[in-house]
Known about the structure:
The complex is a heterotrimer of chains A (324), B (300) and C (272).
Chain A: E1 4-13, E2 16-26, E3 31-35, H1 42-50, E4 57-65, E5 68-69, H2 75-81, E6 86-89, H3 93-96, H4 103-114, H5 119-132, H6 138-142, H7 151-163, E7 169-173, H8 181-198, E8 201-206, H9 209-215, E9 218-223, E10 226-232, H10 233-236, H11 243-254, E11 302-305, E12 308-311
Parallel strand pairs in A: 3-8, 3-9, 6-7, 7-8
Antiparallel strand pairs in A: 1-2, 1-4, 4-5, 9-10, 10-12, 11-12
Helix pairs in contact in A: 4-5, 4-7, 5-7, 7-8
Chain B: H1 6-11, H2 15-18, H3 36-57, H4 90-126, H5 128-142, H6 146-157, H7 161-188, H8 191-198, H9 203-239, H10 251-257, H11 267-293
Helix pairs in contact in B: 3-4, 3-11, 4-5, 4-7, 4-9, 5-7, 6-7, 7-9, 9-10, 9-11, 10-11
Chain C: E1 8-18, E2 26-37, E3 42-46, H1 53-60, E4 68-73, E5 76-77, H2 87-92, E6 93-96, H3 110-120, H4 127-137, H5 154-166, E7 172-176, H6 184-201, E8 204-209, H7 212-218, E9 221-226, E10 229-235, H8 236-241, H9 246-254
Parallel strand pairs in C: 3-8, 3-9, 6-7, 7-8
Antiparallel strand pairs in C: 1-2, 1-4, 4-5, 9-10
Amino acid sequence: MALLEIRDLSVLSGDVALVSGVNFDVESGERVGLIGESGSGKSMTALAVMGLLSQGLTTSGRVEFSGEDLLTLSERRRSALRGDRIAMIFQEPMTALNPTKRIGDQVGETLRIHRNLSRRDALKAAIELLARVEMPEPARYAHMYPHELSGGQRQRVMIAIAISCDPDVILADEPTTALDVTVQRRVLDLLDRLVAEEGCAFLLIAHDLAVVSEVCDRVITMYGGVLVESGLVSEVIGDPRHPYTRALLETSRALSVDGAAPGTDLPSIAGTVPSAGHFPAGCPFRDRCERRVDACIAMPPMQVDGTHSIACWNPVTLLREPKG
Amino acid sequence: MTTFPDSIASASPIGPHDVALVDRAGTRWQRWRHSPNLVIGGLIVGIIVMVAIVSLFWTPYNPLAVDTAHVLAGPSMRHWLGTDEYGRDLLSRLMAGSQVAMFVGSLSVVFATVIGVPAGLLAAQRGGVVSHLVLRFADILYGFPVLLAAVVLVAGFGASTIIVVWAIGIAYIPIFIRVTRSNALVVLRSEYVMAARAYGRRPLAITRRHVVPNIATTMIAQMSLLFALAILAEAGLDFLGLGTTAPTASWGTMLQESQNYLSSDSFLIVLPSLAIIVCVLGFALLGDGIGELRDARSDR
Amino acid sequence: MTDTGPLLEVCDLSKVYQSHRHLGKSTTAVRNANLSVNVGDTIAIVGESGSGKSTFARLLMILEMPTSGTISYHGEVVSGLKERQLREYRRRVQMVFQDPMSSLDPRMKIHDILAEPLRALGIDVDEGERVRELLTSVELPASAANRYAHQFSGGQRQRIAIARALSTSPEMLIADEPVSALDVSVRAQILNLLSGLVRDFGLTLVFISHDMAVVRHLCRRVVVLYHGDIVETGDTEDIFQNPQRQYTKELVAAVPRIRVARGAAEGTPRRT
Lengths: 324, 300, 272
């Protein structure tokens, strides 16, 4: 049984589906990257797993965490799990941290809630955690307020909060998107090292293929609320078979530092991402897909090839012979 | 000077990028149905305004007509809401009172707007010393809450309805100055205003073309809310004898005249009170409702 | 205005902000910047937050006054001029802003948004005709003119912003992180559009960015800013293959690369 088993997860806003029928597993200690652009539903999926969706949205399906279905649990039980067994790192550290509380208090808060530590012990532990996330002068920073820290430092604080109770899984929603390039590098390296040290599972939500490829073992791509491709990094990024992943990879590759030479046109995907509720019926990518066939008016089932799954009627064929 | 070459004009594909040109949230006017505040508030205000207009031409009885034969009568077929201690028809007096409420409400708010909004815009646009002076002017006016302003004016000019208009107007000017200024500053700091400066728009034109349209809805909502408060203030001043004087029918004077009948004929107090409450509620809901509409065009 | 010599010349430009609250405390956003831009150049100003690049862009657009130094265009100083003397400069130098969600007036129709620069600068031209031409050049349908900004996606709004910048038929475009807020697939579209327009209209491009990859694709020269100082300048390829300064090396090395396995470098060599 996997640590996290997500089955047929759907999130609806009224009758608009933001996430449709998503299935995937995260094993203990595994690092999975969830890639998508805006409107793909990737953030919604993460929030659904954490039980942090806003009131007006309805969720269906199952999110099994160590055997318990998180979607049907009481809020009380979910709160007990959050911060302790499942931790989340958000994109904007300034809004995710309380501006009126000191750093040390915020880092220690999870320990006080879940481990019943006293204020003093929690502060001590907080300082140790700040040292682990490479904050210079942790004792001094523990007494500061969020606004006195830089973006990168605040993100380190968020990471410290996330690892404080040795969680089984950490969800990170675009943790480095709002950071400068050089800061992003350091924070990513830190996350990489800490996840390895903690041995916890890691679900990274990002729009940047390169970031995911550097830190994760497995990759899942989403488009229009639907899971389109899933597999090992070597499979999905080495040889993507879903037209969307393939096109995204081509564009990302061209836009990477080692990418296309100037003067040539960048590969791009024709058209624009529709707004929620305006995706075509069947495969959400079909209006923009070069490999579109008649069957695409119906949602394609997942074709499974070992560890590599593709939701496509007409995937790009393999370069090597398929197994089985 | 570059011109647009024919090759560009003829070669571009229209199709793929057209896909998302869908009306996203529906136009602002279609959304009003979803705002209960707007619908209910609008309804109430609509009814009151109609009553006020109708009462200019007709009321069941003359609001001032004394009828000693039917004093303090309860609701009946003759007098639908009864009569007061002078036998005057209460329904007619309530209707006449709505005229005063609308008159004072609209005039005072318009007066405060006409002075306060341009001052606020000026402060936001010019900043520096000018803004400082305008804000200090607002501070001075803050020192004259409605009651104090009314007392001073009455001392000088005697009590009347128009005194109430001035008093409330003066008290509200600083509110409009501050609200306008803060809303205008938000717009002036936006990127589209910076873009306008970058293509050479002058400050005054920016205020006229960008600031005003973008604060309009908020300001109208604000005016509606202050209208509600103005009615309340008007009733209060009339009650204290600082505004409309008896025997003229206004909700405030009706309250003043019925003080002695609190225990015996409480409907004399309840009716004008209800009128005030409903009116204030209506304008407040309307203001909130308009405020909710504001978000339509800034939607993603 | 002369036609020989650099188009834009920045001499010893500095911008210092005095703090209102702490007397005596000041921040130097840009320090002694020197830059020469020739006609047809595509030059990138690269830096992270706090580097001064946004301030630099605003100084180039004369939206702010420098504390010292000058900016000259076609050989004439423009940095100290009053607004009414800047009409010609404003017509020839236009800007594309970063955030497509906030750089277009939500209350204005697209037609007006595109026509505003013409009206503001007193350019006499058939508005309807020009708006149609502009929309075509950014690959949007003519029906877009009657709609409002909120009815468009981020990428489409950025097309509108670019169209607005082109409305006065400028010579030089200053683009402040125009694709940073866009999804990857849209980014490529907009960059293709920009490079096409630069080519077809013979524009000079000053491209502000923190994204090294985008810069490499679009610009032939790079200027690296760090805390207000220009630390390195050069041809794009030189900067990438042979960065001289420590900061530049860090900047190039820090960009995540696409890997096919964790820790492994990408298999396929870059095709030129």
